[in-house]
Specification:
By secondary structure, this protein is an alpha/beta fold. It is built from 19 helices and 28 strands. α1 runs antiparallel to α9 (286-297) and α5 (146-157) packs across α6 (172-186).
């Protein structure tokens, strides 16, 4: 008997194929089964969706239906909860089902043939023999602080979701470990998911989880999932999670879609981090989907941060005021003498003109070196200089393909665009007027490192720092940013040198400001944080405060030396309320002020937003497409009802208007009702597709909807 089989394949939203395609099968396959199907001249991976049925024979021509090419019998079907998560994500973020579902599966599943997959599954089954899911827990107990104990008690008694508001160094990771430990002790088949915002934070977390749980559950019990892994590694981890062998999955935002049939706990560390929001394809928020998935799976969800997102902070207000999360607090650092760093503000208006490191800050760094301690200098801009400039004709190193300047990288004498990647050698003279005296303007981490080395050239390390470094050796400065960590293993190597004490001063971007447990650093300096204070982006102050608080948290993490730890902020606006709150480490006060401003301005979380972005060969076409789609709203069915709580703003160029010779425009849609915004966006999809077919849209490359955007 031949069955009609609805199958999802990877189809982007622009293709107008939003749902399953129908294929023929000689066998009844469970919903969620993985299959291979022909599409055009290709053979694709697909997922059986809905219930296999023979219904629909009257609406489809059987002669045009093609049979599936085969099924991946060795892999259990994806669970109903997983399929519901995908369905919700596709609907809420206005993407096609197939795009979300197939992007969530490991890429190698699409590439391996049946025979290759069978070999891989056999190898996986052999490796799974090391796991012992039912073994008793006999983990060495870790002494908990009173705050940790109180948090864990509330976590046990209440349903959540939970927001763990804990100071840097308060022991949030130990709380995560303990909640996982309790879960595995109480349920022999349960699984836990722990998410971190960036790839470079997974190795140290994996090491801690492996040390705690690996000896008891086997080497496959803890697996990672992130885009930095090879396709074979991702497939291995995914199979371990999908089969239930992996008890703990650690990963970045992509891990929220991992197939864990028995997930009972989801932890989102540094939940405020914008890296949890996908910026390409389906623009989902992994943090928000984690909350939804917890509800679907009956799993507890724990969000953790020293500087929660304003949305999560707002949701964790008392239930009597409408709060939906349970707020757990750990305001103190671990250790009898532990203290948060003293914040010092340097008024750059009173420092020597054009100085990069104020004399007091430079003296403080030298004092740390003399004591055998480490310092960290933070600047969120890589490269040597943001721009090369000719003083004679005002030429600047603009990128010919983007609305941006090419950054000067001195180490390889190149001008490099950080948006499209266009690179060329630094010209010997100004390309416009021939002036040989072209000079860098501004500073990136590369120039900062060079300048600091010049300033500290006469300083020598004390003998007590390291046996490997004899007394009188020059100060060792290291830089960690995207340029110095391109090669595999380079980041781990650099961090190891910092931890071992080989480095005196660490210079870097936000890569070093978050999550790392540096025990020897007692001074952190932010040399140029003012740009975000007056940004047109309403989220810029929130991001700056969070970044500075996180950076400050790298100082004084060892209780024995935390009393002398400091955070230095060089600013031309020392009296700004943001720095006042930072000095007191007072996130609640900062959040209260920001939420008041946002409520007055009808900004999130008091209002809901979506962006429609268009990319085209010309700005006129990009804006014209959005304007035409907006004008066509009036002709939609039930337009009055749909527009009742909707505000559509005019189309405008994006702040980065051109990238790689593609012009970009956007249109903002707002509503005080999330449901009303969703109804409108769903109904508007048809209009967007039809507008795409109009002659005026010729030259349009693509369009995309971004729900709950983080950057406008």
């Amino acid at each position: 008997m031949t069955h009609w089989l609805p199958v999802l394949v990877h189809t982007p939203v622009h293709s107008q194929v939003a749902g399953p395609l129908t294929y023929l099968s000689t066998q009844t396959l469970p919903v969620g089964s993985l299959v291979r199907v022909p599409l055009g001249q290709r053979e694709l991976l697909g997922v059986v969706w809905d219930s296999p049925t023979d219904a629909g024979a009257n609406s489809l021509d059987p002669d045009k239906l093609r049979p599936i090419a085969g099924s991946l019998d060795g892999i259990a079907p994806l669970t109903p909860a997983w399929r519901q998560l995908v369905t919700f994500a596709a609907r809420y973020y206005q993407r096609s089902l197939g795009e979300v579902a197939l992007a969530a599966l490991p890429p190698q599943l699409r590439d391996l043939n049946t025979l290759q997959l069978a070999r891989r599954l056999k190898k996986h089954a052999k490796g799974a023999d090391t796991a012992v899911p039912g073994s008793p827990i006999t983990i060495n107990s870790v002494a908990l602080t009173a705050e940790q104990t109180a948090v864990l008690n509330r976590f046990d008694l209440e349903a959540g979701p939970f927001l763990l508001f804990g100071a840097t160094g308060s022991g949030k990771t130990e709380v995560y470990l303990h909640t996982v430990q309790q879960l595995l002790a109480s349920d022999p088949s349960a699984q836990a998911m722990v998410m971190v915002p960036e790839i470079n934070l997974t190795p140290q977390l994996e090491a801690r989880f492996m040390a705690r749980f690996g000896p008891l559950y086997g080497e496959n019990a803890v697996v990672s999932l992130h885009s930095g892994m090879t396709p074979a590694q991702r497939l291995k981890s995914w199979l371990a999670a999908h089969s239930g062998v992996a008890r703990i999955v650690l990963g970045t935002r992509m891990a929220v879609f991992a197939s864990l049939p028995n997930v009972k706990l989801i932890i989102v560390d540094e939940e405020h981090d914008p890296s949890y929001k996908q910026q390409e394809g389906a623009r989902y928020s992994a943090r928000d989907l984690a909350i939804y998935r917890g509800r679907l799976e009956g799993a507890k969800v724990l969000l953790g941060s020293a500087t929660p997102s304003l949305e999560s902070w707002y949701h964790s207000r008392p239930a009597s005021e409408g709060g939906r999360y349970v707020r757990l607090e750990m305001p103190s650092r671990i250790g009898a003498n532990a203290a948060l760093p003293l914040v010092r503000r340097v008024d750059m208006n009173h420092q020597p003109k054009k100085c990069v490191f104020s004399p007091p800050l430079l003296t403080a760094i030298e004092q740390r070196i003399a004591r055998g301690e480490q310092s960290m200098v933070f600047l969120n801009r890589r490269g040597y200089s943001p721009v090369l400039h000719c003083a004679d004709c005002d030429w600047k190193s603009e990128c010919p393909h983007c609305s941006a300047f090419r950054v000067f990288h001195k180490i390889d004498r190149t001008l490099r665009c950080h948006h499209c990647g266009y690179t060329e050698r630094v010209p010997r003279a100004c390309p416009a007027c021939g002036n040989p005296d072209i000079a860098p303007m501004g500073r990136g981490t590369e120039r900062l490192e060079e300048h600091l080395a010049e300033l500290l050239a006469s300083v020598r390390r004390p003998n007590s720092v390291s046996a490997q470094w004899p007394e009188g050796e020059p100060v060792r400065i290291a830089r960690i940013d995207a340029d110095t960590t391109k090669l595999k293993g380079e980041l781990e190597s650099q961090l190891a040198r910092v931890h071992s004490g080989e480095i005196d001063v660490l210079v870097g971007t936000q890569m070093i400001a978050k999550g790392h447990d540096f025990r020897r650093i007692t001074l952190v300096a932010a040399v140029n944080p003012d740009n975000a204070l007056f940004s047109s982006d309403f989220r810029a102050p929130e991001r700056l405060f969070s970044l500075l608080m996180q950076a400050a948290g790298r100082a004084g993490r060892d209780a024995d030396i935390s009393g002398q730890s400091e955070m230095w902020v060089q600013t031309f606006h020392p009296a700004h309320p943001l720095f006042e709150a930072l000095k007191r480490h007072d996130y609640p006060a900062f959040a209260a002020e920001q939420l008041t401003e946002r409520e007055q301005a009808a900004m999130p979380p008091f209002n809901f937003q979506a962006l429609v972005r268009a990319e085209a060969r010309t700005q006129e076409v990009a804006q014209g497409f959005l304007t035409a789609a907006s004008a066509a709203v009036a002709g939609m069915a039930e337009a009055d009802r749909l527009l009742q709580h909707i505000t559509l703003y005019p189309a405008v160029p994006m702040s980065m208007q051109r990238v790689a010779n593609v012009e970009r425009a956007q249109m903002l849609i707002e509503s005080p009702s999330r449901a009303a915004l969703q109804r409108f966006l769903s109904a508007w999809q048809t209009v967007l597709h039809s507008t795409r077919q109009q002659p005026a849209a010729r030259g349009l490359i693509r369009w995309a909807v971004d729900v709950d955007p983080l950057a406008i």
